[in-house]
Specification:
This protein has 2 domains: 23-61 and 106-275 and 319-442, Outer membrane efflux proteins (OEP), CATH 1.20.1600.10; 63-74 and 88-105 and 276-312. Helix content is 67%, strand content 14%. The chain contains 11 helices and 6 strands. Strands 1-2-4-5 form a 4-stranded antiparallel β-sheet. Strands 3-6 form a two-stranded antiparallel sheet. Helix 2 crosses helix 5 (107-175), helix 5 runs antiparallel to helix 10 and helix 7 (239-249) runs parallel beside helix 8.
């Protein structure tokens, strides 16, 4: 008795230790945020896009250059008149200058600066999209592991139950209370569920590897969905309100809108090539030439220049008009892409909303079906004992019960995924939503 009690105590400690060490959804998400290469790539793209703003601003700021040169001259002077003597000289020439140009009016540069702002805004939305996609991928991988693990557990339990029926059928056949048909039927069911268990274990292994790909390390033991899980309808409880949110503030819609803004600005930038440009400039120069020039002994020159420069483009072979037509066509494409993004967002919102509302009904129906199937199995077993039910009836009732358990687990995970996808369709999916779901897990 002491050994039994001590063994039970150790088993409880081990179970408690495993439960305490089980990672929850937030743990997995934060690990993926630190190590997922897809999200890291998106962050690097966002960092690179931030440089578009100073690059665009540079076209509005002064441009300064320093130039310097030195050269050695070997000069041989000869006259065609033989009466005149020529000369030969060697000397150095040096020059240095500082020039500053300040654009006063350049239409293309002004629009390019606005395009830099648009690209930064676009990068912000793209990063937010990457964050939402990471949440969705983590949740999908997490609950895929739970479902696969649940399928393995159900396959094992079903195998045990069918194994018991198989042993009973063999004993009944040996004593002459049943035919060999019952044994063969139970054996066939046992072999089938054995194959299903192997497939379930293989699927669990694959799902664990998918989770490892996200977090960059071995998949830990993760917490199960607990009894506190309570599916609730989305707020607001109006599909059309969710659809309107998705159409106006969905991240894919915002990305398409920023792309349209950039395309419209690109039309303006290319049309700006027809506009005149006005620059202010100033130059400070120093030059020196060594002796050796005929009749001179070397010179030094200082120059200071300040002025305005106006340039009016007249004709560039039709290239400007061609670029404008190209930009207009791209703008029309961006308009169609925006409309497609809106329609896709509306569809995603409707699918997510229906997935949530129908998911609640499905969970409730499967919970009731589970109770009914359990009662049916109990009644069928009792009927077998009194001789009004056969072993095949028991096996069928067991099969229905395990199918109901599997379908119920699947429906619960589908509800959670639909809830997250609905939030993502409207651009509202954040870590806070994971915290809500994390409260449904038992750790």
């Amino acid at each position: 008795m002491r050994r039994v009690l001590f063994g039970g105590f150790i088993a409880c400690l081990l179970l408690a230790s495993q439960s305490a060490s089980a990672a929850d959804l937030l743990n997995i998400y934060r690990a993926a945020r630190d190590s997922d290469p897809v999200y890291a790539s998106a962050r690097s793209s966002w960092t690179a896009a931030q440089e578009k703003l100073p690059q665009g601003r540079a076209g509005l700021l002064p441009q300064a250059d320093i130039t310097a040169s030195t050269q050695y001259n070997d000069r041989d002077l000869r006259f065609r008149n033989p009466a005149l003597a020529g000369s030969q000289s060697q000397y150095n020439s040096n020059s240095a200058s500082v020039s500053i140009t300040q654009p006063i009016y350049r239409r293309q540069n002004l629009v390019a600066y606005d395009q830099g702002k648009t690209q930064v805004a676009l990068a912000d939305v793209q990063l937010a999209t990457a964050e939402q996609n990471l949440i969705l991928r983590v949740a999908q991988a997490y609950f895929d592991v739970l479902l696969a693990r649940n399928n393995v557990t159900l396959a094992q339990a079903q195998k045990t139950a069918i194994g018991q029926q198989l042993e009973q059928a063999r004993r009944n056949f040996e004593v002459g209370n049943a035919t060999i048909t019952d044994t063969h039927d139970a054996q066939a069911r046992f072999d089938l569920v054995t194959a299903q268990e192997i497939a379930a274990r293989n699927d669990l292994e694959v799902k664990n590897r998918t989770l490892e790909q996200l977090i960059g390390r071995a998949a830990p033991d993760i917490a199960n969905l607990g009894k506190s899980f309570e599916p609730r309808p989305p707020e607001p409880q109006s599909m059309e309100k969710w659809v309107e949110l998705a159409r106006t503030v969905g991240l894919q819609v915002l990305i398409a809108q920023q792309n349209l803004n950039f395309a419209s600005q690109d039309v303006q930038r290319n049309r700006g090539a027809h506009y005149p440009t006005l620059d202010a400039f100033a130059t400070l120069g120093e030059s020196a030439t060594g002796s050796g020039i005929q009749g001179g002994s070397g010179t030094e020159t200082s120059s200071k220049v300040i002025g305005l420069q106006l340039a009016i483009p007249l004709y560039q072979g039709g290239a400007v008009n061609s670029r404008v037509r190209e930009a207009v066509a791209n703008e029309m494409k961006a308009q169609q892409d925006l409309e497609n993004a809106r329609r896709s967002a509306e569809l995603a919102a409707r699918q997510g909303y229906l997935g949530v509302t129908n998911g609640i009904a499905q969970v409730r129906a499967l919970e009731a079906a589970l109770v009914s199937n359990q009662s049916s199995l109990d009644s069928t077993r009792l009927g077998q004992e009194v001789g009004v039910r056969t072993q095949v009836d028991v096996l069928n009732a067991q099969q229905l019960l395990f199918s109901a358990r599997r379908d119920l687990a699947q429906s619960r995970y589908n509800y959670i995924q639909s809830l997250l996808q609905l939030k993502a369709a409207t651009g509202q999916l954040t870590e806070v939503d994971l915290q809500t779901i994390n409260g449904w897990l038992e750790r």
